[in-house]
Sequence to fold (812 residues):
Amino acid sequence: MSSTTAKSKQGVLQKLVPFLGLFLIITIITILNPDFLSVNNLLNVLRQVSINAIIAFGMTFVILTGGIDLSVGSILALTGAVTAGMMAGGTDPILAMLLGLILGALLGAVNGILISKGNVAPFIATLATMTIYRGLTLVYTEGRPISGLGDSLTFQMLGKGYFFGIPVPVVTMLVSFGILYFILKKTTFGRRVYAVGGNEEASKLSGIKTGRIKIYVYALTGFLSALAALILTSRLNSAQPTAGQMFELDAIAAVVLGGTSLTGGRGWIVGTLIGALIIGVLNNGLNLIGVSSFFQQVVKGLVILFAVLIDRKKLI
Amino acid sequence: MLQMKAITKAFSGNVVLRDVQFDLEPGEIHALMGENGAGKSTMMKVLTGIHPKDGGTIHWKGKEVTFKTPQEAEEAGIAVIHQELNILPYLSIAENLFLGKEETLGKTGILKTKKMETEAKERLAALGLHIDPAAEAATLSVGQQQIVEIARALSSNAEVIIMDEPTAALTDREIEQLFKTVRALKEQGVAFIYISHRMEEIFAICDRITVLRDGEWVGVKRISDTNFDEIVQMMVGRALGDRFPTRTCEIGDTVLEVTGLTREPYFRDISFDVKQGEIVALAGLMGAGRTEIVQSLFGYRKASAGEVKINGKVVKIRTPYDAIGHGLAYVTEDRKSEGLILDFSVEENISLTNFKDLSANGLMSAKKERALFDRMKERLGIRTSSPELPVKSLSGGNQQKVVLSKWLGTNPSILILDEPTRGVDVGAKKEIYSIMNELAEKGVAIIMISSELPEVLGMADRVLVMHEGKLTANLDNQDLTQEQIMHYATGGGARV
Fold:
């Protein structure tokens, strides 16, 4: 009895670790440069975080099923380029954006099908599609950025607008978060995602269509990558063929910092949001306190390592 | 040679061993018995230095000792063979045998492979295992791997070997071989501490029995002075009455009819039927193809030929999802890897097969989930302090009840039970039997795979016996004996 209550207490503490980490980093940065806490800068941080966070939300689902998705950055680039290409060619912007989102979901579904029907390990399947999607982007754009995207208000708002003083990308991130949190927590789909990652064989034997769950999860991640692509394309007012490189690593880092287990079945999306914030605050804060950009990478890596060590050793 | 006195151990204030004693004589086989959670494993862990003791003394060969690590215990001559064997499948048998104690050319780290292989061959032959020591360990059966582990223990001059549920995964023939080896070593003065739930085995091989209950010492008996009932009573603290409930149910119409079911190389041309309220046992040696048949029946592995009828209609079952839709439920043999999601709570595990009833438009109803848990907890007597407890923190018997719960929630008309009482203590076993009986009375057709013949004889209305992928007998359970079943299971004349 007493051992189990101790265990659940430990579980709560475990969940608090990302929050404590974020708090600690913010405190240190603020002491070194109080400007960090200005409203303007904080909104700036949130806006910078939003793209990575949206991708990382999808990555959370994938990792909860015990998988990984390395192709998110390439999906971002390809959907961004195709959407921009359509807009530059005169397609209705809203239709172009919708088609971009659908394309993202389809590219993700291809990952899911390779993994569930083709029985390819997620790491290998998405490593391959990462390369293929990136190659398709380069073919499509001929290696050049696509600009001249017109002045559709909806499209411009997506990356640059404000909603009651809050940047629209931040609003998009928070709304996505709310919906995805609800899905994981309250729906049968969310429960099945955890089940597949917790024990795939037992899930299958319980009548869960595990293959279908995986396809949905990768499609969702593709969709969210496309959403991030629209925000990025709008912010830059152009689509870059090299956009999104290494984004998969930041997304995975956010998920891991948030305490979600890479072996699947355990974790939560709140942690991912905090994890993305930790990375964003570090990026912004290290700049503010004048750490060289070379050294910033070292610090980010150390923070990730430290977080994982805490998780492993259950130091707290 | 070994005396443990007044051993006490607590984990964060929770006392798991209180004033427990144990002693062992040279050349003795001493059984340690008790229900799951009685403290057997903890006691062995205290002995071998995995857990430090909080109180009491351990004397080894007349001297007081405290081992700090299992390595220390092993060096002193006390070796443990765990339930999960420590065999590395892709190393050779000889490499496994010498793992960590390799013979090398001086201190160079260059292995004397030939010498180790010759020696491995001799040592294994001495234990009755005649094999090529250069072969991969994966080619050995579980029973043979166990012999390799024993040889490994002996090579470090073990005088006491602790065996934890050594026969759980063995066929009857392998058990015989293991017992032969154990008896031979006993003659040479090696003592064994034998942890098992299988009463028949303990009476066949042990000299004395020490019984623990709820972390306390209940008593020690000579096998010759005691009997089955007394030991059970010591373990559960009360008389259990009959081991099996009286079967009184009406057998109705045929529910399931299987014709010519085949999946090479596991089983071929399997035909049988099961009726309402009937318990049909599938008996046979391990590897006879019993589990494979029910896996195919349930849509988990594809059969290559055959027809399945449910209530007279031909059905196509391609996935477990289809099977559940047709009223099938399947309690798997391996709880941990196929039955439960260990990180999930008790409640979440029960919900797993019942999403349809617990949700509307894809939204889970927390209220309905809790109601199902409450109903199952009441019906099966699951002992858990909270529905939100991780299922892995429950004892084996309670975990099995959780698996049963998740399937009972689906109101199956055909229930498949694969080794339903494996690793479950005596008290919980009896509860599981009464649940089976209750379900049969309600008209559920039950297929039970069991390797425990007393269980087969105690519960089944009919016994199907398999031998190497074929059905060799279909016997009414009237005046049936273990010998008759074994006759067909080992390939004696067929009678279908």
Q: What stands out?
A: Confidence is low (pLDDT under 50) at residues 1-9 of chain A. The interface with chain B takes residues 1-4, 6-8, 186-192, 194-195, 198-199, 201-209, 265-266 of chain A (CB under 8 Å). The first strand of chain A starts at residue 162 and ends at 163. Strands of chain A lie at 162-163, 166-167.
